[in-house]
Amino acid sequence: MPDRGTFAAPVTLVSHSPDETRDIARRVARLLRPGDVVLLHGDLGAGKTTFAQGLGAALGVTDFVQSPTFTLVNDYAAAVNPVGIAVVHHLDLYRLAGDGDLDSIGYDAYLAPDDGVSLVEWPERAPGRLPARGLLVTFDFVADGRSIAVASIAADELADQVAESLRDIPQDDEIKTNAS
Question: Of 122, 135, 138, 174, whose CB count within 10 A is highest?
Answer without folding.
Answer: 135
